[in-house]
């Protein structure tokens, strides 16, 4: 029994139960947020949500940076989910259009992969397990919260912003990965040690182009319902 709580493997009952727990937590946050809409209590609730996300971002990244020996291949806050953890807090604090676009498209389209194919070995007995899932769940849940509570409706301009910034991120991080032998963003010449979609995308560097194309397609799918909705509502 102790071994079952000290390690984690994807696609297990533990994995499924964890996802169910995160879905329930997201639903509760949305119910509370919707009940608070139109009252003076929604802003404090958003601030509490944002502050929690910011604390989690600082704690996790500080742990990596302060670890000894320092492992620069994993310690730098350069993964998409590292950036999205900060974007989540900034979106709820400031609600700027660029942050909303990144939270919605990158959060649901990219950070959700951390929930479906977690790169994690520590089980529930480890603080890192809870930190990992609550961070990724908070990002995806925060994007859904933005839609369900704050009425965010993405536009093709938001899609373009998220896509161009995503391509810019890949171009920059590929240079870092090649220059230092890292694998940030999973676009370096290495594979994750847990199963992931990268396993079926072929050899490096060609899979990087497939990853970018897949991300752009997923962003378009996330935009499609809102584009169809806007088209249906437009006067003929």
Automatic annotation (TrEMBL):
Q: Which UniProt keywords apply?
A: Membrane, Transmembrane, Transmembrane helix
Where are its TM segments located?
A: 12-32, 132-152, 164-186, 206-228
Q: Which Pfam families match?
A: TMEM164
Q: What is this protein called?
A: TIGR02206 family membrane protein
Look up and give the organism this protein is from.
Answer: Eiseniibacteriota bacterium
Q: Which taxonomic lineage is given here? A: Bacteria, Candidatus Eiseniibacteriota
């Amino acid at each position: 029994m102790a071994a079952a709580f000290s390690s984690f493997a994807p696609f297990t009952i533990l994995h499924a139960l964890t996802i169910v727990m995160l879905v329930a937590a997201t639903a509760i946050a949305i119910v509370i947020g919707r009940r608070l809409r139109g009252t003076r209590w929604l802003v404090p609730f958003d601030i509490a949500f944002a502050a929690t996300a910011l604390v989690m971002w600082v704690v996790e990244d500080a742990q990596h940076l302060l670890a000894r020996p320092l492992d620069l291949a994993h310690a730098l806050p350069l993964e998409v989910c590292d950036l999205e953890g900060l974007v989540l807090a900034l979106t709820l604090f400031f609600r700027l259009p660029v942050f909303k676009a990144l939270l919605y498209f990158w959060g649901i389209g990219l950070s959700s992969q951390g929930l479906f194919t977690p790169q994690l070995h520590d089980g529930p007995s480890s603080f890192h397990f809870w930190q990992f899932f609550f961070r990724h769940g908070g990002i995806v849940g925060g994007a859904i919260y933005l839609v369900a509570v704050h009425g965010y409706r993405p536009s093709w301009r938001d899609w373009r912003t998220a896509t161009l910034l995503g391509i810019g991120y890949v171009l920059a991080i590929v240079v870092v990965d090649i220059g230092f032998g890292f694998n940030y963003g999973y676009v370096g010449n290495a594979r994750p040690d847990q199963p992931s979609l990268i396993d079926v995308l072929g050899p490096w560097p060609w899979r990087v182009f497939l990853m970018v194309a897949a991300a752009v397609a997923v962003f378009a799918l996330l935009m499609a319902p809102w584009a169809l909705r806007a088209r249906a509502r437009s006067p003929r």
